[in-house]
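[agent] plan:
  1. take the single chain provided in the ticket
  2. run structure prediction with default settings
  3. attach structure tokens to the ticket
  4. add a short note for the reviewer (M.T.)
[agent] executing step 1
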Amino acid sequence: MLLGVALLGSWQLWVGVRHVEPFVLPTPGRIVRAGWQSAYLLPHHLWATVVASLTGLLAGAVAGVVLALLIVRVRLIRQVLYPLLIVSQTIPMVVLAPLLIIWFGFGLTPRIVVVALIVFFPVLVSIVTAIDQADPDLLDLVRSMGAAPRQVLRLVLLPSAVPAFFSGLRIASAYTVGGAVIAEFVNPNGGGLGVFITRSRQAYAVDRIFVAVVIIGVLTAVLFAAVDSAARLASPWQQPERTARGRSLKRGPRSARSRLQRTVEVQRLTVIVMVVALAAVAAACGGGASKRSATGLDKVTVVLDWTPNTNHSGIYLARAKGWYREADLDVKVIEPGDTPSLEVLGAGKADVALSVQEEVVPARAKGLPVVSIGAVIQHNTSSLLSLQSAGIKKPGDLPGHTYGGFGGLLEKALIKKFVKCDGGDPARVRFVDVGNADYRVGLQRHQYDVVWIFDGWDGIRLASVDKLPVNRIPFIAHTGCIPDWYTPLIATSEKMIRARPEVLKRFMAATSRGYQTAMRDPGAAADALMKASPELDRDLVQRSARYLASRYAEDPARWGHQDHRIWTRFVAFLRDAGLTDKAIDVDRAYTNRFLPANH
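[agent] step 2 finished; step 3 output follows
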């Protein structure tokens, strides 16, 4: 405790003396204050993480026990399956987790599977090792008394494996909560501390991220202690006895009857745990997909392109106002996590997807039958942003500077075309991949000089909220050089168009009503988004809603309309830049037929 107090005090003092910005490293005091202020948000997320952690831990333990028994009883399974299980541990979970969403959907099941995959291996190895090293003299004894293989397993092997089982479970419990959080990063639907972290990062609330980290650490410690206590209860013969003076003495040999009775109790406990785990997994995985809800409404699943933000305000507003229900629709909004929304759409796990034109075009070129059915924002609202001190006022100023981005091919193609049109040398622009970073930190520390931002979110936050002196180069001001394109847009599948066109018409009519209202009343749009995602920064959301109110469409009655010229020019740009290796039929890539103005 003294060491912990000393570390926290040093942290607080160091941050204060060095004047470290809170968005880089908040002080412990600031973290405590953030935890108090966000306490009303935490119970929902905490419960979701606890449910996924415990259910996944039980499911993984059951899987480890079952596989271990198969491996020790069947030689062929040991020879074939055991090496494969070992090799499977080399697959990074961040690679496997998005595939689980494609296979199992966005419910609790993928989260449980992720945790179970983390848990089962240490349990399996511990049990197999313990059974292989069971007391040979005891085995010879029971076999000499005529015990059958099942009796040997029940009376000798399983009891000897109980301590090893809990040793493996202790190791697994240390990773269980972290595994659940990783699953929540990939599958953010249903809440969880991982979702709280993602949305806090989207709101640039670094102190709230540390709050979640502290809670994760406490949960892990509690779970480890619980498993340790269960181990003591399940194998009391492994625990030392205490003398009157408090000294520890190892327990002596018990009577055969007492040990047999304890063995039966342990086996009963194990069976109960397995039944509970299997029942929990079955309940989480159960339920078939239906196109109609219990109330007779047509179900529509919408997958976003990112975490909730003001680009999605019209959808949240239409849902909050009940306009989807008025259209006999039961609309469920899900977040994609790290899985591209078009992959979710193509896999049939969603009916409608938010995406961008630069993803729809290559997706169709690769044979994915997706179709854009509406533009969320009529024109591109992207810009290149830099600090004024960098002296970048036009594209020709970029040579000799460093661009920080996601590393996408479209980024490099646009930047190079940008610079070349303004008479600069594209080869002198340096590119670094920074991913989903806080651009404020990188710009102020001169890790890079210019970034690609969306004016309606990062642009507002950096210039208006944080008051940074910045320069912007809007893409829309240079359409003589680079094309305009739709980002974001609403897409569906060709299968959905063939099977449920009337549902799409009703969905787009209600969605159009939501965005038209967001244009007239940005305050209502901000409120609807904050209700759905209260972790966001209200000031930023309100400013962003006001900014986008005049940009969703020039004419509210024409919201969602897509221009054929914009589509053909952007497709041609991608082809010329070598970003698609196959021509697409533009007329099949988008349609306006489901918009209210075209009914």
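[agent] step 4 note for reviewer: The first helix runs from residue 2 to 18.
[agent] ticket updated
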